[in-house]
Design brief:
Order of helices and strands: EHEHHEHHHHEHEHHHHH
Strand content: 5-15%
Distance between the termini: 27 Å
Structural class: mainly alpha
Largest sheet: 3 strands, parallel
Bound molecules: adenosine-5'-triphosphate, magnesium ion
Shape: globular
Number of strands: 5
Oligomer: single chain
Length: 333
């Protein structure tokens, strides 16, 4: 039997380079190996509700991520591309899972604590429940492989624990899902996140000034890269914004270029203007084909509707079977 794969992105903003390297590249890689893997990729609209959101724009934001998925090369013939809330089985299974997960464990997760810090006025039950719903997103497809960024590792640990409990207590056969790391990333980056342009923490859709979107124009990229905080261009240790800049140089222009610039930093010094301008051009060159495909897709709303409808059908067929099995094994049916 083919191994199943699940991944998702929240509809909290446009896709950025962190999502692209941390998740989307792995999603594409696994999709391309369709003889081995069956791929399910969703827009996590239910998870979007765990942080403040705008009800007027949510629907379009969700649709925009589906269009982004198509623009980067996800193929509805190969992958089920769907919207999480269109498959209500995720919610039902999450409830069953919540009966084997403790409150203490959820409260201690670093991901929970980060969001509490980011939105102290919004510490809801849904936020606490996030990892349970994510375990359900994955296990409702009995997916063993999850192409997501390193920031999601604590959630995967929860999913593995839940899988073990459900298998032990109720005789289910859930796999223990593992993170899939895209091998096209530089080796040193495979266990890390793409940094924020502010020089602190990870690039995030919901942290203003932290990201470059896949839809950004050359001008926008230039102005964002120009804002990465830098120093006089010379020194012994590479830290903060300069380190961030070097990481982007490595991602887009290779390790050698980074080494060359770092040596120069420790020697005769760097001129950031040229470096930043060249880097911006290279980033834009990678994003431009995606942007061209995106423009074409925007003129074909019927196709996008069809993808969304068929994706949900494909996903529900699998999800309904798992939920029926869990109901029976837990003694409900
Ligand atoms: P939000 O701020 O709303 O949480 P986000 O930018 O963190 O948004 P998510 O929708 O939470 O994006 O995550 C989508 C996918 O992208 C996940 O697999 C996540 O691990 C990955 N991801 C997000 N940010 C990064 C990053 N900076 N580096 C690598 N992977 C990332
Ligand atoms: Mg996130």
């Amino acid at each position: 039997m083919k191994k199943r794969v699940l991944s998702g992105i929240r509809a909290t903003g446009r896709l950025h380079l962190g999502n692209y390297f941390g998740a989307v590249k792995g999603m594409l890689d696994l999709q391309s190996r369709s003889a081995e893997y069956e791929t399910f990729y969703m827009v996590a609209d239910l998870h979007t509700l765990t942080t403040p959101h705008d009800k007027e724009t949510l629907k379009q934001a969700v649709r925009d991520i589906i269009i982004d998925y198509l623009a980067v090369g996800l193929n509805p013939e190969k992958s089920a591309l769907f919207i999480q809330s269109h498959v209500p089985e995720h919610l039902e299974l999450a409830y069953y899972f919540s009966t084997v997960a403790t409150v203490a464990k959820m409260q201690h997760l670093p991901t929970f604590k980060d969001k509490v810090k980011q939105y102290p006025e919004n510490v809801t039950m849904a936020l606490l429940n996030y990892p349970i719903l994510m375990a359900s997103d994955i296990l409702v497809y009995k997916a063993g492989l999850v192409p997501v960024g390193i920031d999601q590792e604590p959630h995967l640990e929860v999913a593995r624990e839940i899988a073990r409990r459900m298998n032990q207590d109720f005789g289910m056969d859930f796999p223990e899902p593992k993170r899939f790391i895209d091998k096209s990333l530089p080796a040193g980056r495979q266990g890390e996140y793409i940094p924020s342009l502010t020089g602190e923490g990870k690039m995030s859709k919901t942290v203003e000034g932290s990201y470059i979107n896949l839809t950004d124009s050359l001008g926008e990229i230039k102005s964002k890269i120009a804002k990465i905080p830098t120093d006089s261009g010379q020194g012994s240790e590479i830290l903060g914004g300069v380190k961030t800049l070097m990481e982007f140089v490595e991602l887009f222009e290779g390790k050698e270029k980074r080494n060359e610039l770092e040596n120069q930093y420790r020697g005769k010094g760097l001129r950031y203007g040229e470096i930043k301008s060249e880097l911006s051009e290279t980033i834009f060159a990678e994003l431009e084909p995606i942007q061209i495909r995106r423009k074409e897709l925007e003129t074909n709303p019927e196709f996008v509707d069809k993808v969304i409808g068929e994706g949900a059908q494909k996903a529900r067929r699998v999800a309904a079977r798992t939920v029926a099995e869990v109901r029976e094994k837990m003694g409900l049916a």
